[in-house]
Amino acid sequence: MRFLIAGFGSIGRRHLRNLLALGQTDLVLLRSGRSTLPTDEIAGLPVEHSLDAALAHRPEAVFVATPTALHMDVAIPAAAAGCHLFLEKPIDADTTRVPELRAALAHGGGQVLVGFQYRFHPGLRKVRSLLAQNAIGRVVSARAQWGEYLPGWHPWEDYRQGYAARADLGGGVVRTLCHPLDYLRWLMGEVTAVRALTDQLGGLEIEVEDTAEIALRFESGALGSVHLNYLQRPGVHRLEIIGAEGTIQWDNADGSVRIYRAAASQWEVFLAPEGFERNALFLDQTRHFIDVVQGRAAPRCTLDDGVRALELVQAVLDSRG
């Protein structure tokens, strides 16, 4: 199969490395030339600087890894050309061009996998299994917290110029760290109400929000909250779900899951698989995308999932105080 990787920032480089690790060597790169990464590892690969020239290579699938606000500029023509799409999250800065993408997919016949890699986390998959087993009874509430210090993400570049810090590229902590808005839907069911507060509190000299407090109501009646920030040191990413008969906790730091069953009055711990590390999520996701392209699997995270996550992002930004 031939894969086109559109964008060679940190996530584009990760997709390149993982495709190579999985034995996929027929690769084409679409680059703007603005990446701050060294180019040693792409020496010898075909590189194009226009989408028309890149699509002329007739790739079967495209990884859309450009800045958020530029996703549809690649995704729509690629879909119309019949390519399958790996579409990074969030799928765009807003939902305005989603109907155009749907029409292009209907014409071209390709499938879409949205890049919410936490759906592939063994810990969160365990949490989902426990909830399906009614292990803590009726779920009352869920709380996700994710904070990471933005200047430390890509130390080789000025963080203020990266997409995560720029409104024109679809940045801001709500869009950039929107994974919990997806995995909470995946775990808890549909969201029916959203309220939020956001602000610039960290003195980072950026033009987008760096902190958000988000309140959710789920269709089940359960309540939820999400805290996001670009400021926290050390970084934290964890989840707690409270039920009428116990509590489930997940910590991204070590991938573990803990469950307290009230009937047993004790905690049970499920450790991450031996040797587990962060890139395993992306590798498993890429394996799955290859299966999607080859017709062996349906996407685990569909375009509809990506649209709903973006609608929640927009609801947060529209309701913020």
How does this model look, in words?
The protein has helices at 10-21, 51-55, 71-80, 98-108, 122-132, 173-176, 179-188, 279-293, 303-319, and strands spanning 3-6, 27-30, 47-48, 61-64, 84-87, 112-114, 139-147, 191-199, 211-218, 223-229, 236-243, 246-251, 256-261, 266-270. It is an alpha/beta fold. It folds into 2 domains: 3-110, NAD(P)-binding Rossmann-like Domain (Rossmann fold, 3-Layer(aba) Sandwich), CATH 3.40.50; 119-275 and 301-319, Dihydrodipicolinate Reductase, domain 2 (2-Layer Sandwich). The strands form 2 sheets. It has an 8-stranded mixed sheet with strand order 8-9-10-7-11-12-13-14. α3 (71-80) packs parallel to α4 (98-108), α5 (122-132) runs parallel beside α7 (179-188) and α7 (179-188) packs across α9 (303-319). The longest helix has 17 residues, at 303-319. The termini are far apart. The model has no long low-confidence stretch (mean pLDDT 96).
